[in-house]
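The material for today's practical consists of a large collection of protein records. There is nothing in a record beyond a sequence line and a structure line. As an example, a complete record with its sequence and its structure tokens follows:
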Amino acid sequence: MNRRPPHFPSPAGMPEPEEQGRTGAEDLAAEYWSAAGGQEESPAVDSAPPGEAEPAAALDEADLAALCRERICPGCPEKKEADDARLRVLAELDNARKRLAREREEQIRFASEAVLTEILPSLDNLNLALFHAAPDDACRDFVVGVRMTRDLLTEALKKHGLLPVGEVGEAFDPSRHEAVGMAPADDVPEGHVCALLASGYTLHGRLLRPAKVMVCRRT
């Protein structure tokens, strides 16, 4: 028959046999649970890393406009100055747009100015040929041909805005006429054109070349 060994009490200050297997970490855990009432608390988890603000929600244009109306006083001087500056900028943009459109239109209208200037001497020679043509029946057909050529060229140039300037009997105008000299004339008032040496021309109202004229002077 097996006999149970006798139990001898442990000396004072020595743990019981069932407590000798516990470590110091287990003792600390036991004290923590007893202080916390036996309930585990989950540690707080930050929604954003330390030092970084959470991203703001995206706002549409309507929300931004409403926010601006709430934070800006309609009667404050800063808003009035901002509105005045905005109106000035809009007016300057509108003026610049109109100026560019006007300059572009003018450039298109006068794009042929250089070409027409080169054609004018040929037209002058046709006019001189008709002016000095002899009243001879032998040259009649030739004169008719030259006149028809001159008229066709003049009509074609008119379609592009080229118009002749200068006529005998009109008052002398320094802005349209170039006085080559002065001569007496009985049928023309003094200070008027008494002879047209070379016609002048305008292109869409702009003077391309002044007319070369003789001005009447009373003796």
